[in-house]
Known about the structure:
The complex is a heterodimer.
Chain A: E1 6-15, E2 18-28, E3 33-37, H1 44-52, E4 59-64, E5 67-68, E6 84-87, H2 99-108, H3 117-129, H4 145-157, E7 163-167, H5 175-192, E8 195-200, E9 212-217, E10 220-225, H6 227-231, H7 236-242
Parallel strand pairs in A: 3-8, 3-9, 6-7, 7-8
Antiparallel strand pairs in A: 1-2, 1-4, 4-5, 9-10
Chain B: H1 2-34, H2 41-51, H3 56-78, H4 87-125, H5 128-134, H6 139-143, H7 145-177, H8 182-192, H9 195-221, H10 232-262
Amino acid sequence: xxxxxxxxxxxxxxxxxxxxxxxxxxxIHKGEITAVIGMSGTGKSVLLKHIIGLVxxxxxxxxINGKSMDSRPKKGGHLFSSQLSYMFQENALFDFxxxxxxxALPLTETSKNPNSIVIKQKVKTRMQELGLGPIxxxxxxxxxxxxxKRVALARALVTDPKVVLFDEPTTGLDPVRKKKVHKMxxxxxxxxxxxxxxVSHDIPGIFDxxxxxxxxxxxxxxxxxxxxxxxxxxxKTVNAFIRGEERCVSYEIGLEQPKG
Amino acid sequence: xxxxxIEKLGGLVLYAIGSLGRITLFFISGLTQVxxxxxxxxxxxxxxxxxxxxxxxxxxxxxxxTGMVLGLQGFYxxxxxxxxxxxxxxxxxxxxxxxxxxxxxxxxxxxxxSAMAAEIxxxxxxxxxxxxxxxxxxxxxxxxxxxxxxxMISFPLLTAIFDVVGIFGGYLTGSLLLGINRSIYMDKVxxxxxxxxxxxxxxxxxxxxxxxxxxxxxxxxxxxLAGDGGFGAKGVSMATTNSVVQSxxxxxxxxxxxxxxxx
Lengths: 260, 263
């Protein structure tokens, strides 16, 4: 059996007195698109931020290629971290930089020669591949939501990452654009061969592109499997969630008052 | 009851000391990044233009009116002792030693310091700082280091301009309006100002540059931890307000400490 690229082992995480992750066990395999689904506020983004090191677990282990991430060197040499890219929910583009500079930023800021032709060519190539040709001098505020997503994706892909993490990439988009973003992720994943982890509650859209699906509920992974397996699942919470039924809406996500 | 107040006061003092320590560490980590290659010349130039050139108008205006008021007040005070001829000395020394560095720093805090805190605060709440971390870019190097260098360049220059314009303002009221001999006014300015006064003024403005930039950038950088329910836009507004208020307080405290050692 092939060992997973990223493995969560009994990971817990609390913020103040609230335990968000209550012992996460999850495997992410190389070259696959893994979708992490679940209701808002269940800790999906927190889980994703563990992989890139923006959040650190209270207990448990995060294994990358079988090696614990706790043993990462603190200064420099983040070998795995440099192979990761993160696409934020709200894109996190720099509003004071134009499209070209936003995409080039991960290269220019880490290179000894920020004005090198190699960087320029790489950025131009990515922009062409993502259909961003004529907008290099525009600023993020001058772009549509879909275009901004593509700029964010171009920035995430410009470093040729091995793993790309997507935090709710379709939030705030209309159904047509949602489909386009999903299609775009699938196309580029196939083209560049990266491993993708997508946090989403866009059901059933995400099922069309994910080879592996994990559902997070109340801080625990309650399902892991393929699209067919989740659709055939007998777990009541899973079923209720993917069908959008009211029973899975609890007071914990802020839409209902606690009873009693 | 009394114990409660003492506990509260102690808590505040500890918070202030802790906060000062954190700002100092923030400054040190930003300063060390300044010397790491590649040197960020473009960004330093951009921020020098923003902090320096764009503050020029407000500095000239404040300097002019401060000098004019000093000329008026100084004249009517000195005339009672029959020593109005010393107006040039009074205006020049007051400006170069004290008012120039302090008022210029406060004006730059109001114009550029608040903007720094707000801009970095917005970067924090819109996850741009987290985005830098995910790209293996040191956020402190990116947002703070060029600003501290730009401030170290801009503050002394703006203070020098404030002093010169202020002395000219004193000349306008003292000589042109109130009739003090021009040559005497200028002669008193030249003869009374020593190199130690100028160096002291520059030293103050240099230290103020460090204080203002460190406080404003630190407050913006940690806008999400502002507390008191201040998250999002409210967190940024609180960070901006706190940065300006704290900078002004620190300017006055540091001014006293430096003056104590200079006199």
